[in-house]
């Protein structure tokens, strides 16, 4: 008597034909025709959100915002801003944007606002700019100039400076916020357990970066949205309002410290999504 294993391999042509017929029928039921799902068109892809942190922060400062944007279906890139000088930092972000297929919403915090203003100029796929407690400089203005335009910034007295030599051989200073001052100066509405970590992981910025004059600003030709942090001790709220009004930016005020993306990620994400929706079409 033949074993069951052998019997499974001995089939008549009729059996094979029947089996094939069943398979074809099942395939026809389970695979829709090529035109299925296209009658109403595929859903439009959401723009990619590129987040650019500022001085004394890193990409982790966007974590709460990233979580909400990704939950809502947005592709997100949190760029590592070099913080070495405005022309080079902007060129780096411009290259990131150029490598992204489709529309981009470019978001900057603090000094990152100066960076996105320069980076978006001439970048055809940037459809909206969002400034989060950030600088919106006019051509030739620096972050240093703007922060001193109206009274209220207490940043200068909290900074530590370390002499450095840049890759081109020039001398400069690397600036950081004294860890003992970080909570009150940068993120007073964030729990100290969090700000203790932020103080350690803060990225230094060169003195030159904060004094570099901006190029032709993209906010003159690209729609912009601004989050004003009303309790900001780095960039006074009066400065933020002045820049937003000058740029005819859609403005939302949040009672928050300079670290508004950390303390109020939901409000920040909401404004970014409004920018994405407002720039569509």
UniProtKB/TrEMBL annotation:
Keyword set, alphabetical order: Signal
Keyword Signal: yes
The organism of origin for this protein: Actinacidiphila cocklensis
Keyword Signal annotated: yes
Pfam families: Abhydrolase_6
Sequence ranges assigned to domain AB hydrolase-1 in this UniProt record: 49-270
Protein name: Pimeloyl-ACP methyl ester carboxylesterase
Origin: domain of life: Bacteria
């Amino acid at each position: 008597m033949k074993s069951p294993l052998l019997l499974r391999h001995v089939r008549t042509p009729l059996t094979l034909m029947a089996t094939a017929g069943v398979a074809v029928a099942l395939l026809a039921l389970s695979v829709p025709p090529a035109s299925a799902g296209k009658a109403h068109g595929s859903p439009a892809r959401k723009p990619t959100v590129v987040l650019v942190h500022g001085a004394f922060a890193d990409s982790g400062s966007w974590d709460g915002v990233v979580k909400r944007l990704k939950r809502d279906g947005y592709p997100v890139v949190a760029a590592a801003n070099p913080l070495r000088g405005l022309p080079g930092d902007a060129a780096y972000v411009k290259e990131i944007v150029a490598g992204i297929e489709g529309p981009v919403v470019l978001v900057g915090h603090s000094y990152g606002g100066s960076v996105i203003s320069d980076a978006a100029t001439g970048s055809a796929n940037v459809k909206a700019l969002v400034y989060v407690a950030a600088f919106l400089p006019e051509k030739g203005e620096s972050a240093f100039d703007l922060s001193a335009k109206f009274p209220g910034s207490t940043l200068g007295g909290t900074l530590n400076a370390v002499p450095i030599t840049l890759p081109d051989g020039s001398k400069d200073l690397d600036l950081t916020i004294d860890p003992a001052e970080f909570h009150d100066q940068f993120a007073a509405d964030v729990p100290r357990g969090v700000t203790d970590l932020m103080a350690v992981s803060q990225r230094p910025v060169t003195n030159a970066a904060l004094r570099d004059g901006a190029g032709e600003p993209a906010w003159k030709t690209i729609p912009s949205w601004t989050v004003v942090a009303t309790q900001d001790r780095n960039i006074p709220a009066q400065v933020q309002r002045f820049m937003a009004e000058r740029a005819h930016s859609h403005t939302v005020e949040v009672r928050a410290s300079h670290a508004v993306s950390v303390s109020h990620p939901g409000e920040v994400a909401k404004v970014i999504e409004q920018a994405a929706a407002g720039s569509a079409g």
